[in-house]
Amino acid sequence: MAIEYLGLSEVNGPLVVLEGVKNASYEEIVEFTVDGNEKKLGRIVAVYEDKAVIQVFEGTSSMSLTNTHTRLTGHPMEIGLSEEILGRTFDGIGKPIDRMGPIDAEVRRNVNGLPLNPVTRKYPRNYIHTGISAIDGLTTLIRGQKLPIFSGNGLPHDQLAAQIVQQASLGDSDEKFAIVFAAMGVKYDVAEFFRRTFEESGVSDHVVMFLNLANDPVVERLITPKVALTAAEYLAFEKGMHILVILTDITSFCEAMREVSSSRGEIPSRKGYPGYLYSELATLYERAGIVQGVEGSVTQIPILTMPNDDITHPIPDLTGYITEGQIVLDRQLHGQSIYPPISVLPSLSRLMKDGIGEGYTRADHQDVANQLFSCYAKVGDARSLASVIGEDELSPIDKQYLVFGNEFEHEFIGQGMDENRSMEDTLNKAWELLGLLPREELDRVNTKVLDQYYHPTTIDAVAKAKAEADAMNE
Questions:
Q1: Which 8-state DSSP code applies to residue 437?
Q2: What's the distance, Cα to Cα, between the start and end of the chain in Å?
Q3: Among 137, 197, 192, 134, which residue's Cα sits nearest to residue 163?
Q4: What's residue 158's pLDDT?
Q5: Which segments of 219-338 are extended strands (E)?
Q6: If we measure between CA atoms, which residue out of 51, 33, 228, 445 comes closest to residue 42?
């Protein structure tokens, strides 16, 4: 029989303290009744002796020491799941907000999940197609990978996330694929942008959305990614689907953690964040992967905004330790109206080499990617030299590199917000741009591959090809 406790001992921000508690456990869900009618949920975050510290999801604004009844449920937070969640929109703790009624739950799952046994993990192999050349060609996303996007305030990471949701697929595979999209601490207009974009593009039937708005309680923000990943694990490991999880913005999640930690009086660590920031992030990111003997997979793209564009900030710094690479957005490219403004050189995908090439994408993929990285690095050297001695004084080959760099940024990295390039288009465009350079400069490519794909091109040829492609699109 559940015991109901009358009154509270203390209210402090999103936290309340209850005394005289028996048999309470960490992460246990608590139900509050305020003034006899208002219902709220909370979870126990600390227990000592007969006291329990409880986080209240909906906030403590209407709660006082005398008007609240508390009931311990005896179980951690759970979410009801079935395949009906596809195409639905939920709030940050998994309640439907799309006016389509409650979910007819097939199972209930603990949102905290269980860590995957490393022995049961299967090595990621196949790629996920995003239709974005800078990602597909140079930092290929592999099924079961966690590949974050490092952005900055004002950069178009929201548009990039929406484009990935619209265009993502398993390439030529006919296996079942779906997307779980979780937004934390976003403004109403941003949430509406995502919702409208998915509906208008016709992809919402295979997207599950979890929205925690900026005016929603801070504590709810800490639960949102866990709820989203629980839904992803259910669809992947119990329904055999390949799931891409997009989490935006992880920085909002970490800020919420810092705020709640401060309310609890915990000793802060770097930049005021709690000392367990690393383990909390790892708890989220490590829920990506593939399990041996199971059909599905969970792939993650966490998006985080770096405060002051500082990649050494604790959030991107710790994220980089845990994940398998990163995609970095660049403010300078954004200033040149290049979309998506992906900075190629600091971006990488550590699992890319095992999911591309013959049998996966195309035999020349690894060679052409290596060559593009090498040539673009030399573009930076040529630009630095030009800023010192002037462009007219550069050698002919350095001038060619400047031309290549400009075309590479505008034609390969840059593409339309609704442009979905196939892997074949991406690799062909890469060879078209490498044709701007002399063959002897392409020293990262196998000779047989060069013989098959290398064709010298000129700026006129690139411009003509672009004009023909624009005409076809019209």
A1: S
A2: 69
A3: 197
A4: 94
A5: 242-248, 289-290, 297-305, 325-329
A6: 33
CATH of 365-473, one of 1.10.1140, 1.10.3710, 1.20.58, 2.20.28: 1.10.1140
Report yes or no on whether pTM surpasses 0.85. yes
Structure tokens at 365: 């993929």
Return the structure tokens found at 336: 């040149």
pLDDT value at 369 more than 90 = yes
The two beta strands, 141-142 and 107-110, are unpaired
Please provide the DSSP assignment of 354-414 as one string. Answer: GSSSTTTS-TTHHHHHHHHHHHHHHHHHHHHHHHHH-GGGS-HHHHHHHHHHHHIIIIII-
pLDDT, residue 471, reads 61
In this predicted structure, the answer to whether residue 207 has a pLDDT above a threshold of 80 is yes
- 79-354 fold: Rossmann fold (3.40.50)
Tell me: pLDDT of 465 over 60.
Answer: no
The structure tokens 């005394």 sit at 19
Reply yes or no on whether the pLDDT at 263 is more than 90.
Answer: no
Q: How far is CA 391 from CA 64, 293, 387, 400, 470, in A?
A: 71, 59, 7, 11, 31
> How large is the average pLDDT for residues 176-186?
94
Spatial CA neighbour of 369 closest among 383, 355, 386? 355
Q: Where are the domains of the chain?
A: 4-75, 79-354, 365-473
Task: Reduce the secondary structure of 219-235 to three states and give it as a string.
Answer: HHHHHHHHHHHHHHHHH
Q: Which residues pair with 20 in a beta bridge?
A: none
